[in-house]
Write a structure and sequence with these properties.
The longest helix has 20 residues, at 97-116. The chain has a two-stranded parallel ribbon. It is globular. It has helices spanning 19-27, 39-48, 53-58, 60-71, 83-91, 97-116, 118-132, 136-139; strands spanning 11-13, 33-35. The protein is mainly α. The chain has a domain at 7-46 and 117-140. Helices cover 56% and strands 4% of the residues. Helix 1 links the parallel strand 1 (11-13) and strand 2 (33-35). The two termini are 22 Å apart.
């Protein structure tokens, strides 16, 4: 799922249902960036188990990132701070972050290339804004009464 409040060009995970499908249908696949496993692939992968080691072994970039995080590069005053996160992704990756990493990395490179092409970036952003419009769920403040007259 993605928050489409600002209507800018977005990167979303592949999921053939829900808000992601609505965004793709409204703005066009050429104006968004999609990455990752499909819902069917997620289910199949989870049936095989949620251990992330195989994905980490296949991806030099991911292995390097997890090594940096786990070794305290981003928390030098507390080097073990993110060790639990790395262990969880390695041994119990329910959300399949490791499986989606390379796809996400390449998608971010595509986002960067689009960003460098200012005309293409602004065209996609303008089309996203125009085509998404508003929905009651995204524009209704949390304290605004629902149709029944009760507050949330």
């Amino acid at each position: 799922m993605v928050d489409q409040i600002n209507r800018a060009t977005v990167a979303i995970s592949e999921e053939p249902r829900g808000a992601n499908v609505e965004i793709r249908e409204r703005v066009g696949a050429e104006n968004i960036f999609i990455f990752g496993l499909t819902a069917e692939e997620v289910e199949a992968r989870r049936q095989q188990g949620i251990d992330g080691r195989a994905a980490i072994e296949r991806s030099v970039k991911l292995a390097e990132v997890l090594e940096a995080i786990g070794s305290g590069v981003f928390s030098p005053d507390e080097p073990d701070r993110y060790r639990g996160l790395v262990d969880m992704l390695t041994h119990s990756d329910y959300f399949l972050v490791t499986a989606d990493f390379d796809s996400y990395f390449e998608t971010q490179r595509s986002v960067f290339r689009r960003w460098r092409d200012k005309h293409a970036w602004w065209q996609a952003a303008a089309l996203n804004t125009a085509r998404m419009g508003g929905s009651p769920r995204t524009v209704r403040p949390a304290n605004m009464p629902r149709k029944s007259g009760t507050f949330r």
